[in-house]
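User: Please predict the structure of the protein below. I'd like the answer in structure-token form so I can feed it into my own downstream comparison script.

Assistant: Understood. Taking the following sequence of 237 residues as input:
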Amino acid sequence: MKKRVFSQDELDEMGTPTSDLLKRAVDAGEGERAKRLAERLHNEFLAMHDLYVDWVAGLMDYVCRNDGEDALYQALKGVIGTPGAAKSDTTKPSQPQTEVDEEASLRRRVRTLAFALRGHLFPIKVEEDDEKVCLTMEPCGSGQRLLERGAYEPPRSLTKIQKPHAMTWGLRDFPVYCTHAPILEILSIEALGYPATVAVPAEKVATKACTYCIYKNTGDIPEEYYTRVGKVKPQGG
């Protein structure tokens, strides 16, 4: 086939990031085109997001099936490392914080968590009470979405861990992909002495979204959120 299939403009547009095309459309006042490009950008990212979730879940499943739960636990602790938000925004200060400092730190931590969760491309319900700020994806864009797409059913049949473990919050029938949430809490407690973010799962994990809570006073974090991952709440903490 010698005849060209695409014009040069088409080739150039295919090679241009959708975000750049979207900004150009906005600048040009092309509202309808901008809306189409925004939808295209969403779909492009969602496809890549789901692909990587599938790959990660598959790797986790492979380790668990071939080497066991403890090997997966050690692998996740090594790969995930200390949570970035905990290192940057929740490290215990060397000097007492003022009320203004504490509020600024809380705002950073909540905004950082919202930034991360928005990467799953679904709406987030954000609620605050006197004790904490909680964020819930509607729906969960990773663990719940993976379950709803049939990943734990044939032919993929990803592992659901049956033996209670620290990385399952002591629960049975725990979706292998969701073990990263307890691991994040474990790493945070080991680094800081408390979980920077506490996940409150559905009664049956991944059938609904977890709610992620950041406590204003770490001493108010209930003891159960330590014991479920095999840790002990510090005295006076």
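That's the full token string. Residues 82-91 have pLDDT under 50 and may be disordered.
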